[in-house]
Amino acid sequence: MVETVIMTNDILAEDFLTIFISSTLVLIFGGFYVGIYTAVKVNLLKKWTMPIAYIFWALTGYCMYVMGSLMHINTFTAKALVVAAFGLLLLPHAVYYMQHKVHEENKH
Amino acid sequence: MANNYLTTESKKLATWYFTFAAIIFGAQLLFGLVAAIQYVMPGFLFEIIDFSIARILHINALVVWMVFAMIGSVYWLLPDETGIETVGIGLGKLLYWVFVAAIVIVILVFLLVQVGPADQTTIWFITEGREYIEAPRWADIGIVIVVLGFIYNLYATGMKGNRSGIITVLMADMLAFAGIYLAGMGYTDNISVDQYWWWWVIHLWVEATWEVFVGAIAAYGLITMIGAHRKVVEMWLWIEVAMLFGSGILGIGHHYFWIGTPEYWWEIGALFSALEPLPLVAMFVHVLYDWGKMQGEQNAQGKEISVITNKPAFTWFVLNAFGNFLGAGIWGFFHTLPQVNLYTHGTQFTSAHGHLAFFGAYATILIGMFYLAVQGKNGIKIMKSTKKSIWATSMIVGGVMGMTIALTIAGYVQVLVSRAQMGATWAGYFDGQAGMWFAQGMDWRLLMGVITFVGFLILVADLLSIGKADHHER
Prior knowledge:
The structure holds 2 protein chains of 2 kinds. Chain A is mainly α. Chain A has helices at 16-41, 50-71, 75-107. The radius of gyration of chain A is 18 Å and the shape is elongated. Chain A starts with 15 loop residues before the first helix and ends with a helix. Chain B is mainly alpha-helical. The chains are: A mainly alpha, B mainly alpha. The A-B interface holds A 4, 6-7, 10-13, 16-17, 19-20, 23-24, 26-28, 30-31, 34-35, 38-39, 42-44, 71-73, 76-77, 80-81, 83-84, 87-88, 91-92, 95, 98-99, 102-103, 105-106 and B 229, 231-232, 235-236, 239, 263-264, 266-267, 270-271, 274-275, 277-278, 281-282, 284-285, 288-289, 292-293, 296, 325, 329-330, 333-334, 337-340, 342-343, 412, 415-416, 420-421.
């Protein structure tokens, strides 16, 4: 069935390096996003640096887009990557919310 | 060696496990070196220890030393967490010797017998032939009995003493860890079916149960080494468990791309593999967050001293956070989607990922546990690093990173030449390996392997001597 074919096109030889670098940057930028967010929340960084965290998240999304485009991913994998990107966006918010609640409970 | 500082039999048993783990760790590196030399000089030890045998010993020793160190870690933390001596410790000691004897016999058979006839004799007495778990069937059954005894010790102690969040997670995790091993013990003459079940052991160990184990040990380490708040640490632990199992279990799909399983595994594998780095990011932040938080609380009280009570162990725990993120996260995400995995599968990319992931995610934290045991065994209140600790850490980390980079370059050549340009043909396979960059990658891998091995020897010297140094606070 055509719909289930996941390999739509061959990857060009000259695209492999860009794919590997962009997939590395997905996690490095993702790490910066979560790291800066956490550092601001625990007062290691000033509050004005928070937008930088979101810029890194946007860069993560862009690198995912580059990586996915060059790999010629199918629609399903594209959706999976979007889910992962939004998962990363929500992750520190959810964890910090729970962390904050636990600290509040400990104080009282 | 007898001493007065270990107050429980469980911790003494843990040191036995750690000692044997360290010996097998050395064997793993030694046979890794033999295999690395054979890539550069194919005639090295020809018909004495062929590449296939060196490789078997290298990767099986890796699994065995880690399993020993993991069991040792549980015996070490059980009295601290439950507040009581481990139940059935006599059984634990007996099973330790059974386990050691079985492993020694298996290694001798691998070394001296090596191969057997193509019938049941080989499966029962020489090797089952499944990568990473190549022990013959009699040893398989022995391992199951030993681990069942260990599970009994853990459950009986957890139910009798204080059952903390860490112990609860370990009880569930170790049961899964043991149960999944059974999936690799059956026999089928269909290679696709065989591989399907074999991946249950390998993947669900390293990307689910072992990662959860690391989360539990990191939680214990943060509480004991920097005094992190238990409630906060255990909350993180539960989140990590949910995320690791949530993404890791069906992440198994990325091993089912090319073994003859149905095509829906491509999509399951792609989705969950894309999610798998998320818990690794969380674990990375977890360690740094708690460290920063505790040091901040200390500084706020006007005490400008480190909160860390065991510098070398904590160094390895922090390296674990980085290494897990780098090795399992970045080097895994490189080639986890099926579209690119079609080209990278079975190249040195896989090997690069394997080296850094096993080291970063597991070896680091287990070495950290070795140092925690040395601290406890020698009654040290605050343990500081020595020059040997720093040299060992630098050389091992530098060596493994160097091997990983060398293998990545070699893998990149294979992707381009063997796969993209020559279409995974027989000629392409050899052309890929004949290239200058591939050959130089193998040379650098060997050099970095030697550095890692020398670092390991210094690590052993440090573990044996650091407890006697007089610059610690006692």
